[in-house]
């Protein structure tokens, strides 16, 4: 598939002065143990007096300004004769090169790479993982330029895994048709364990770094099932080749989607447990579904990208929330978890969202827009002030799915909306969609208005009427905590440096109202010394509160910034929910039809 389709019709900012530029990169490793990657960038065909080279400040799929240029060192420029040319840094991520009388320049710099995540580069003596937005610079206004990338592995490293196209006639050389493709193609270099399989006519490579107790044949089988189910929805798998780069750590997680690859974090010794394997497969399911949702079908703001600043959209609840919903739907459809287990996990997700005070403060559309300043920069008050567009978006997808299935008499569901959107906006129009266009497609497929859903649940903060939507499938949501008489303080406490410290205070709780603060040290309650011990389940504070009942008054002695204070408060009934989903006693034929369609029974 052509790169123009990849990021759609891109309005080039290039001037004719740069029309003949040619870009080549060479990547090498002189000091991997010190976490450096060496970059050589050759630019030829220059017809201007200067070139501005820029480093992206963020990476698509991870909505946070990360300032990758902070890791650049040793920037140097020479001409074809080896003569050093003048350069100056004119902004945090821009270097201006004086190219007068030079039709070719060689730029050298090194990048410090020592942050373990799926979105940042990491280099040590065992391997190199390159997240391209933090490694490769681009000439200003020239994102559509093609480039060749030569990789020189360190000493005994023998393998390279990337979604970039390999140039077979050249050793360890890869081709990127433009910088959008280059920036969407992470690179793993080392001695990773590689295995391959074919699913839906597509060659899939799995590159495992860090070891682990995984069974290759089990992974091939189960990943194939997920891929087949997802491809069935859209009727097409848009790649000829796809790469999974998996980093196995003692405790790992997370993933980041790319155009024809993904990077996954996993726990190396959890593959041989049912729960651990399912967690990994759910992550596979999530990131692979992005192959369609986000990488091709996307909110209009997400491409072509501006790599120098935030790219705002209020639709991450679709881009990520729907993907979170479908990650579990597809593991269920693939037979990797039972309907009962799926419903149990769904009820847990509902409990998690409804127990977060921020859900009643921040609409999910605003949480999407504010991802750049909230989701990736949480503080001690985040639970009170915002909600995750992943978790809340998944529940919006749930109720939309059930609404569509019910209104079409089980002839269509959210699947049909996503496919219609893919066909219309990616395949036909080669552009992203607006919020209004997505809503219009929902209403076209379902035959129903979604005005109230948008007003109350997406742009508003009303509590979702779960029983209304689950009732379409003959289910009901029961709160097992409704009759609880547990006392509630509303403070999270943690044992830290042999002290019982407050690490969170819930909005409108007794602790909130009385003025208990994060970073307060709790010394005693009701003249009882609080011991600086805890077990895996609770601290001494939580144990003490568990002996009380709603309405009881307590007096806490705390230390705040070295000063002793007294705080009096009255405990209340625990407001948190503990939901489960159960079948209605006598579901109708219509409800059974919706249930069968939804759960693929």
Brief digest:
With 601 residues, this protein is of the alpha+beta class.
Strand order of the largest sheet: 4-7-2-1-12-15-14
Catalogue the unreliable spans: 1-19
CATH topology type of the largest domain? Neutral Protease, domain 2
Helix content: 25-40%
Description:
There is one protein chain. The protein is α+β, with helices and mostly antiparallel strands and 601 residues long. The protein folds into three domains: 3-190, Sandwich (Immunoglobulin-like); 195-478, Neutral Protease, domain 2 (Orthogonal Bundle), CATH 1.10.390.10; 487-573, Roll (Pdz3 Domain). It is built from 16 helices and 31 strands. Helix 4 packs across helix 5 (316-333), helix 5 (316-333) crosses helix 9 and helix 9 crosses helix 16. The chain starts with a helix and ends with a helix. The model is unreliable at 1-19 (pLDDT under 50).
Any descriptors?
about 600 residues, Immunoglobulin-like, Pdz3 Domain, 3 domains, seven-stranded mixed β-sheet, five-stranded antiparallel β-sheet, 31 strands, globular
């Amino acid at each position: 598939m052509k790169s123009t389709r990849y990021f759609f019709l891109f309005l080039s900012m290039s001037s004719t002065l740069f029309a003949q530029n040619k870009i080549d990169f060479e990547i090498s490793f002189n000091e991997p143990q010190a976490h450096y990657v060496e970059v050589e960038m050759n630019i030829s065909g220059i017809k201007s007096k200067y070139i501005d080279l820029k480093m992206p400040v963020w990476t698509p799929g991870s909505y946070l300004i990360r300032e990758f240029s902070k890791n650049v060192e040793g920037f140097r420029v020479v001409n074809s004769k080896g003569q050093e040319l003048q350069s100056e840094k004119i902004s945090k991520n821009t270097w201006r090169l004086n190219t007068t009388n030079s039709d070719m320049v060689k730029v050298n710099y090194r990048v410090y790479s020592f942050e373990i995540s799926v979105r940042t580069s990491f280099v040590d003596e065992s391997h190199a993982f390159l997240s391209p937005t933090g490694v490769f610079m681009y000439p200003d206004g020239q994102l559509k330029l093609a480039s060749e990338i030569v990789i020189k592995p360190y000493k005994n490293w023998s393998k390279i895994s990337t979604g970039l196209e390999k140039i077979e006639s050249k050793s360890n050389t890869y081709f990127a048709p433009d910088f959008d493709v280059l920036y969407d193609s992470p690179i793993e270099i080392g001695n990773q364990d590689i295995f391959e399989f074919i699913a839906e006519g597509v060659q899939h490579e799995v590159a495992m770094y860090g070891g682990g107790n995984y069974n290759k044949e089990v992974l091939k089988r189960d990943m194939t099932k997920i891929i087949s189910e997802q491809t069935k929805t859209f009727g097409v798998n848009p790649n000829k080749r796809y790469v999974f780069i998996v980093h196995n750590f003692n405790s790992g997680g997370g993933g980041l989607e790319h155009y024809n690859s993904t990077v996954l974090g996993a726990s190396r010794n959890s593959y041989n447990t049912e729960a651990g394997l399912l967690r990994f497969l759910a992550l596979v399911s999530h990131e692979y579904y992005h192959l369609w949702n986000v990488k091709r079908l996307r909110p209009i703001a997400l491409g072509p990208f501006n790599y120098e600043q935030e790219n705002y959209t209020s639709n991450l609840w679709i881009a990520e929330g729907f993907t979170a919903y479908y990650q579990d739907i597809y593991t269920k459809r693939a037979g990797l978890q039972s309907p009962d287990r799926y419903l149990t996990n769904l009820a847990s997700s509902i409990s998690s969202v409804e127990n977060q005070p921020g859900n009643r403060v921040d609409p999910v559309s605003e949480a999407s827009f504010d991802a750049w300043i909230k989701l990736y920069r949480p503080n001690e008050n985040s639970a009170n002030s915002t909600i995750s567009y992943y978790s809340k978006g998944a529940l919006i997808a749930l109720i939309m799915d059930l609404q569509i299935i019910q209104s079409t008499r089980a002839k269509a569901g959210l699947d049909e909306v996503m496919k219609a959107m893919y066909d219309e906006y990616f395949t036909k129009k080669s552009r992203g969609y607006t919020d209004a266009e997505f809503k219009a497609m929902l209403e076209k497929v379902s035959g129903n208005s979604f005005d109230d859903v948008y007003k109350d649940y997406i742009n508003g903060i009303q509590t979702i009427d779960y029983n209304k939507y689950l009732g379409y499938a003959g289910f009901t949501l029961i709160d097992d905590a409704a009759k609880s008489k547990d006392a509630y303080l509303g403070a999270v406490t943690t044992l830290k440096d042999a002290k019982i410290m407050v690490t969170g205070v819930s909005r409108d709780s007794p602790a909130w109202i009385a003025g208990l603060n994060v970073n307060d040290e709790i010394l005693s309650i009701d003249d009882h010394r609080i011991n600086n011990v805890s077990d895996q389940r609770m601290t001494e504070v939580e144990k003490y509160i568990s002996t009380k009942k709603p309405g009881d008054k307590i007096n806490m002695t705390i230390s705040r910034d070295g000063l002793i204070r007294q705080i009096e408060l009255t405990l209340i009934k625990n407001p948190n929910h503990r939901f489960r989903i159960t079948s209605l006693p006598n579901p109708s034929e219509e409800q059974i039809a919706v249930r069968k369609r939804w759960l693929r029974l």
